[in-house]
Amino acid sequence: MSELTLTVMRLGFLAVLWLFVIVAVQVIRSDLFGTRVTQRTGAQARRAPDRPQARPQQQSTGGGRGGRGRRGAPTKLVVTEGSLTGTTVALQGQTISLGRAHDSTIVLDDDYASSRHARIYPDRDGQWIVEDLGSTNGTYLDRSRLTTPTPIPPGAPLRIGKTVIELRK
Amino acid sequence: MSSNSTTGGTSTVSAGGLPSRRNTELGLLVFAVVIPVFAYANVGLAKNGTLPAGMIGYGLGLGLLAGVAHLLVRKFAPYADPLILPICTLLNGLGLVLIWRLDQEPGVRPENAAPGQLMWSALGVALFLAVLVFLKDHRILQRYTYISMAVALVLLALPMFFPPVNGAKIWVTIPGVGSLQPGEFAKIVITVFFAGYLMVKRDALALASRRFMGLYLPRGRDLGPILAIWALSLMILVFETDLGTSLLFFGMFVVMLYVATERTSWVLFGLLLSAAGAVVVASTTTHVQDRVDNWLNPLQLGANGGVTETAQVMYSFGSGGLFGSGLGEGFTRLIGGIAVKSDYILATVGEELGLTGMMAILVLYGLLIERGIRTALAARDPFGKLLAVGLSGAFAIQVFVVAGGVTALIPLTGMTMPFLAQGGSSVIANWALFAILLRISDTARRPAPAPAPNPDVEMTQVVRS
Fold first, then answer.
1. CA distances (Å), B366 to each of A12, A51, B87, in order?
2. Cα torsion at B334, B335, B341, B343 (round to 10°)?
3. ipTM value of the model?
4. Closest residue in chain A to residue B48, using alpha carbons only
5. CA-to-CA distance for B203 and B211, rounded, in angstroms?
6. Residues forming a β-bridge with B183
7. Which of A6, A88, A93 sits opposite B14 (nearest CB)?
8. pLDDT score at A109
9. Can you list the GO cellular component terms from the UniProt entry (chain B) (predicted)?
């Protein structure tokens, strides 16, 4: 085997090895750069004045047809405070259960949460409803404790123990 | 599902609504099988001038293993991470080629190790698949917190009853079958225990503390478990003279403690305790003392007039240079001792693939660890988070301890490079480790099941209309 062939193969192998590494990094590139990092202090300050405007808009679209209502509907649930801060769950028409039970969609590691604390589900109009499942310490929307299933306005903080959850678009 | 799994590179990774990315995995897997076959051809051409006879069979064997693994992952963990399986396959395949390449050199013991290693790899993949098929949910493991502690202790204590091999009592010899290193399996089992234990005790460990000079000092009764683990790892060191495993256990526990409690003081405590332990053991045990001496003075001449193995490994790195001598053209057979194919396999990488290839291999290990940590971030339950962090932390520490030992950054310890080095237990245990990580990532990325019909919604509708 000539020296040249071996040199070409040697460098070729290194190139192929690095090509694999680069392809692998491309696959996870979205992990490194694609996720949006929201700054919590800034975002809250910005959201506060928005909220009064957002709410009537939500109500007007909620009364319309399913297609229009769904466009303004929140697409994800974000945990903004507590031990699970930063966790997001996409809202895709499924019921989301919250609590300390291991089979909950979001397992709360929180001394003030009950094992089956609350659930969040969509009604027919695509409006997201939160219902307290008889928890000991209660579920709070903004400042008020929930007693009945209540629609969640986007951006309103939903507090369970030390955990705060928001629905976002 | 097929429309779901076609994917571009632009999708954001956040929980839910994700493409399953199985086709990405398949593409990478084909790539990961082709590279070792290319390496195999490369070695044959360099050594004998012809393509090696077993190339087709070897390629088909590796391809078959990877294909079966891929199909079962598609079936049983469709939303699992797309990178873990291809990278493991690539590292395992490259390891097989390197071992086969060293088999070509007469006098490198153990002779003809590649077929055995291929068999162990197949067993490892089989265990990987068994874990994926039978472990439906990683949260089941949480039920066995204290049982896994007992199992881990038994596994660790077993080698004490067997004769030492090469100065370390880490082997269990089963007559007629071969020898196993139970420590490799204990690594996984004890991670389950740590994750289950810390999940329950994290609040006590994090909150009940006194503030002293800017540090949170834990209470005595909370300090108990960390001291017990420390004593345990020291005992492994003293009785089994296994520096690597004790470092691995203690390091992993400190990592998980830090992740569970978010207290820097635990890291500080861990470093102090491990430093104290290392000093005590290094000054009392001759076996460890020799290793430290070799590390501090690698160029010192031994009793037979030669330099230490550490120095020989450094020579081979130097001889490799930036681009290496080419596969099959190095001289790592000149490294003395019996560990050229296991502990010192990175020396062959460094000489024949050079710094460039060595970096690629280390980046691959880094990517595997990154996927593990990413899985931990995506997991939605604290037990899964801790388990994923612990498993990838253990893997990271093992890679660091071996690579650091071979490159003379830290004293050499008797551990094997995961997937790359020759050694049955290591390959099998690491395949099982990544099976658990795949299971966690599948649970984390899987979209929730379709909504069940909800009577309350119906009632709301009735009231509204």
1. 23, 44, 10
2. -170
3. 0.84
4. A1
5. 16
6. none
7. A88
8. 83
9. cell division site; plasma membrane
